Amino acid sequence: MKILLIGAGGQVGQELEQLLAHDRVIELLACDRTSLDLTQPQAIADQVAAFRPQVIVNAAAYTAVDKAEAEPDLAQAINALAPGALAQAATQVGASLVHISTDYVFDGIQSVPYQEDSPCNPLGVYGDTKRAGEVAVMAACDRHIILRTAWVYGAKGKGNFAKTILRLAQERDRLRVVYDQIGTPTWAYDIARAIVALLPQLGPETYGTYHFTNSGVASWYDFAVAIVEEAQVLGLPLTLEEVEPITTADYPTPARRPAYSVLSGEKIAGMLGTTPPHWRQSLRQMLSELYGSMPS
Question: What is the topology classification, in CATH, of domain 2-154+185-216+262-277?
């Protein structure tokens, strides 16, 4: 199977490249931002036409939620126009497209998990552009899977919430974290594993939109407390003494965020025949891989 991986430098992309590179039946071409400029639709088309993959996995995105409010054109280019170009190119060569999207396509006013067909109503530029990317993919490529996920963190790639909390917990004695935004922390490795499990099942009966996160529910405050507790178990030298719960109103940001963005994973669990690990279990595993060699 020939697979073109877009966004190989990101959190999920690095995990995917590592998993797929060890599969001898897969011919993998992994592209990051240095090898493929996603703001150039023609470059995308040329890359796909040259490699002629059977599957394209798009793990690339503009994910700076607040910065997107000041850079809407760049967010639009990467999150909306590039997926559309990938979808058109996939159709040209008869490839399937797996495109990663986000819980931020929803407005967060629900109090029960969002289903795949729940109405989308993004609150900011990031969510708007990601939703536009979904629509572009659906319009241009019948052979698609849109995989929405949420609150992604991991050991690889650039900074994320978990890494930020770990750093600050070794620099400060007090942190303030919002408790009234609810979702599901999701380990990038678990997302990559789910995508790898999806690949052999790609076909007319499985194309469509799916939600994948770890199991369980948390606030950002819950997530921060868990990161600190697990880091303490591993013996990290923390200076932090208190995590204070605050409201979203106490911590204004340029972009609005959904207050509740838990995604229902029933559909993908039914297809894969397995339920993803609880978020706390995956957090513990990720931190153990990062710091497991430290004395406890």
Answer: Rossmann fold (3.40.50)
How much is the pTM?
Answer: 0.95
The continuous run of DSSP H or E covering 122 comes out as: none
Q: Any idea where the domains of the chain sit in the sequence?
A: 2-154+185-216+262-277
The residues facing 4 across adjacent strands are 29, 56
Q: Would you tell me how many other CB atoms lie within 10 Å of the CB of residue 252?
A: 7
| Dihedral sign (CA 43, 46, 50, 52) | positive
- CA 281 to chain CA centroid, nearest Å: 18
* Per-residue pLDDT tens digits for 228-273: 999 999 999 999 999 999 999 999 999 999 999 999 999 999 999 9
Catalytic residue at 126?
A: yes
**195, HSE (Cβ side, Cα atoms, 13 Å):** 34
Residues 138, 209: Cα–Cα separation, whole Å: 9
Active-site residue (options: 114, 126, 207, 210): 126
